[in-house]
Every structure is written in structure tokens, then in C-alpha cells.
Design brief:
The protein is of the alpha/beta class. The chain is built from eight helices and eleven strands. The chain has two domains: 118 residues, Response regulator (Rossmann fold, 3-Layer(aba) Sandwich); 90 residues, Winged helix-like DNA-binding domain superfamily/Winged helix DNA-binding domain (Arc Repressor Mutant, subunit A). It has a five-stranded parallel beta sheet with strand order 2-1-3-4-5, sandwiched between helices. Strands 6-7-8-9 form a four-stranded antiparallel beta sheet, with helices on one face. Strand 8 and strand 9 form a beta hairpin. It comes from Thioflavicoccus mobilis 8321.
Length: 221
């Protein structure tokens, strides 16, 4: 799942990027406000982590532009501790959550996972669809209670399809969410990845809708 990180502190951005990637996210990082606004307006992200103090265009202005243009991506803003005015302004501008600096990476990840779940209509951190269970906190997958070892890329695929269970996800959308922009992608990379995951989970869990994409069925569980 692809996230936009907008933070001009190079050291902090590197630390957050490493934590996000370890948690199964694909990260696009931007330091400049104008570039971040354009990328968030034109690319498909599951969430944005947005610092407010940025060069060329501040975070609040970016957020207001996105919301005025109909961009509904979940946004977690980073603010200076104790600056309640900034937090109120950010929420009024359309932010979904805020986190004061300094923060622990564990809290950042928990808040981000919650935003992504809510945006996808999922309430719990543990997703169950038929025999398949995914624990987003532990990045653990099991089928009928049997743990399944997945590579980071395989986990991203299962996680994205589980978060959007019941909806056919196109190959283009999966490509955007699973691979970094500078990653050299083969035309059949998603197809090969789905094939690997099916061999591990069972051939019927991920279904193909020819000409449309891939699907994990919604269930009552």
C-alpha cells in the first residue's frame, strides 16, 4: 500500500520511511510543499503523512487545496507538541488525525493503520475473510489457523486485497500500490506475484475477473 510522506527534516523522513517500509508500505517521500501538493493531487495513495512546516508551500495550504479539489485521501498531520492552534487548524482544514512531535514510531504506525482501515471500511486490525486471516499489527497471515510465510511484496498484495475485499482491484491499481515509482516493473509482474501467493494461500482465495482484475470475496466474518 502506497503512502505519501511529506517531511522536510531529512533525518526524520529517513527514519519514518524505514519504519513504514518495514511495516509493509510503499513510500513516496517529498520535502517540498509544491511538489508534495502536485503528487498528492495526481497520484493514488492510501494515506498521506503531512508535516505543516514546509518550504514553498505550507502543509495547511496543501491540505486545503486537496480538500477544495475533492481529494479525499486520509491525512495524518505532524505538528509541534503543544501547538494546539495548529492542530485545530489542521483538523478544520480536513485532516483525519494528528500526531505531535516528537513521537514514537509505534504510535505513528498504529494511527496510520487505523486511518487506512477506516478509509477502507474496516473496523478491526485483524481482518478475516473465509479461511484467510490477516493481522495488520503483526503483519501475520494464516489460512485455517495455519501461519503462512509471505515475502514483503506478497504481504502487501494480500493486505491490499483484504482491505478492499469484495471489490475487484485492477492490475494497474495493484501496480501503483505495490511498487515504488522508480522500481522497474515487468508488464506481468502482478500476474506472477498473484500466482506465487495463490500457491501459498490456496488457489481459490484470490479470484480473477478477466479483463478487470483480482478479488478476495467479502464474507460475513
Amino acid at each position: 500500500m502506497r503512502v505519501l510522506l511529506v517531511e522536510d527534516d531529512e533525518r526524520l523522513a529517513a527514519g519514518v520511511t524505514a519504519a513504514l517500509e518495514a511495516a509493509g508500505f510503499v513510500v513516496d517521500a517529498e520535502r517540498d510543499g509544491e511538489a508534495a501538493w502536485f503528487k498528492g493531487d495526481t497520484e493514488n495513495y492510501v494515506a498521506v503523512i503531512l508535516d505543516l512546516g514546509l518550504p514553498s508551500l505550507d502543509g495547511l495550504s496543501i491540505l486545503r487545496r486537496w480538500r477544495a479539489g475533492g481529494q479525499r485521501v486520509p491525512v495524518l498531520i505532524l505538528t509541534a507538541r503543544g501547538d494546539w492552534n495548529e492542530r485545530v487548524e489542521g483538523i478544520d482544514a480536513g485532516a483525519d488525525d494528528y500526531l505531535p512531535k516528537p513521537f514514537r514510531m509505534e504510535e505513528l504506525l498504529a494511527r496510520l493503520r487505523a486511518l487506512v482501515r477506516r478509509a477502507a471500511g474496516q473496523a478491526s486490525a485483524v481482518l478475516v475473510k473465509g479461511p484467510l486471516m490477516l493481522d495488520t499489527r503483526r503483519m501475520a497471515v494464516s489460512v485455517d489457523g495455519v501461519p503462512i510465510h509471505l515475502s514483503p511484496q506478497e504481504y502487501r498484495l494480500v493486505s491490499y486485497l483484504m482491505q478492499h475485499a469484495g471489490r475487484v482491484v485492477s492490475q494497474l491499481e495493484l501496480t501503483e500500490q505495490l511498487y515504488a515509482q522508480d522500481f522497474e516493473r515487468d508488464s506481468n509482474a502482478v500476474e506472477v506475484l498473484v500466482g506465487r501467493v495463490r500457491r501459498k494461500l490456496g488457489m481459490d482465495i484470490i479470484q480473477t475477473r478477466r479483463g478487470f482484475g483480482y478479488l478476495i470475496e467479502q464474507t460475513d466474518q
